[in-house]
Design brief:
alpha+beta, two-stranded antiparallel sheet, 6 strands, 16% strand, globular
């Protein structure tokens, strides 16, 4: 499938709407080692579009793990659940922070499946959150 073109204006709109944070794990782009991607929430291969409502800002790790997936395994229910949709879902309906704000906890099947699929609590992410917390910029909101 050919890559689709997104204008500078659309890319800027997506970045501003996301407040320069990954819309999945809430990582700050300012402290990322790799540029963030404009991600298709519903992949083009699954009939997604380039409409602004189908685009999200994602860190490289979340974007790479999600790839073209729209569902994943929920470790609690042992069933498949759809992944978090940044345009249709509220983050706080599916996730919460641990008391030290280092670990993302799934509070719904969608949240748990997304955390598992995107490996949102990998050691490197937790270590970066701890460093950013000590620096006073985590959590981002």
């Amino acid at each position: 499938m050919a890559r689709s073109y997104l204008s500078k204006t659309i890319k800027q709109l997506v970045r501003e709407r996301a407040k320069d944070c990954c819309e999945y794990c809430l990582a700050l782009s300012t402290f990322a080692f790799h540029p963030f991607a404009i991600e298709h929430i519903i992949p083009l291969i699954a009939d997604g579009t380039n409409a602004v409502e189908n685009l999200a800002l994602a860190c490289q790790h979340c974007n790479n793990c999600k790839y073209n997936k729209t569902t994943a395994f929920d470790p609690l229910s042992k069933e498949t659940a759809r992944l978090y949709h940044p345009r249709e879902d509220e983050w706080t309906d599916h996730f919460m922070w641990s008391s030290d704000f280092l670990t993302i906890i799934g509070i719904s099947a969608i949240g748990r499946a997304t955390i598992t699929c995107l490996k949102m609590n990998r050691v490197e992410a937790i270590n970066l959150r701890a460093a950013l917390s000590a620096y006073g910029v985590h959590p981002p909101f």
